[in-house]
Amino acid sequence: MVGPKATQQAVIVAAGFGSRLQALRPGGQLIKPLEPVGGVPILRRVIETTLATGITEVVLVTGHMASELEAAVGSWGFGGCVRFVRNERYELGNGVSLLCGARECQGDFVLLMSDHLFQSRNLSGMLAAGRGDNGAILAIDRKIKSCFDLDDATKVVADGDRILEIGKQLGSYNAIDTGMFLISGEVVPLLDGVMVRCGDASISDAMTQFIGQGRMGAYDVGDGRWHDVDTPEMYDEAERLVAAGLFAG
What we know:
- This protein has one domain: Spore Coat Polysaccharide Biosynthesis Protein SpsA, Chain A (Alpha-Beta Complex), CATH 3.90.550.10.
- Helices cover 29% and strands 25% of the residues.
- Strands 1, 4, 5, 6, 8, 9, 10, 11 and 12 form a 9-stranded mixed beta sheet that branches. A two-stranded antiparallel ribbon has the order 2-3. It has a two-stranded antiparallel ribbon with strand order 7-13.
- The radius of gyration is 17 Å and the shape is globular.
């Protein structure tokens, strides 16, 4: 009997403005994924960690300052391991970037954020756990007290390995969304439907539909660490964590 095909593709969303980090470049032009943490651009750290887990192709979705971002990534020497896809409507929700990337994938794929540092064991563990019969799996963190900016975090209600609710404004929750997903190709028609109805889409729109089907799974990263770099304060914390050796680079 032939087992399931290993997931080989990752979509990394890097199309947004990154306006909340603009204070790092007063009066200048900021390209958030290229901001260095510990001397290495955030996005380079994300791509290197992703490829280290056995992913063979990264579909990088660009938008804001796309030419500059693509030129920088092209100079890093990843070659055919990174393919660029442009989201021409990057002013819309992040679900549009997900849709652009998902259309370029065959079968299951990993979804990652260009501003989320993570340890490789988080991704390799989720890949090993697999998607099962779920439409998607979200890597969650039950170490709520270790979250640097809890107000900004997306909260999750999980029951074992099943996600029941997800959202930033949840009053009661037991885990945090780490920004790492394993997703089936079913997400394309789901988001196409959202776009037809609303003219815009978020990643949460797709995940909410999987939750409604009872097919949104959870993978607990356990002791694995991750960190979102979204504000100057988060950036400073990222510098501290990298200096402490938590994230390879």
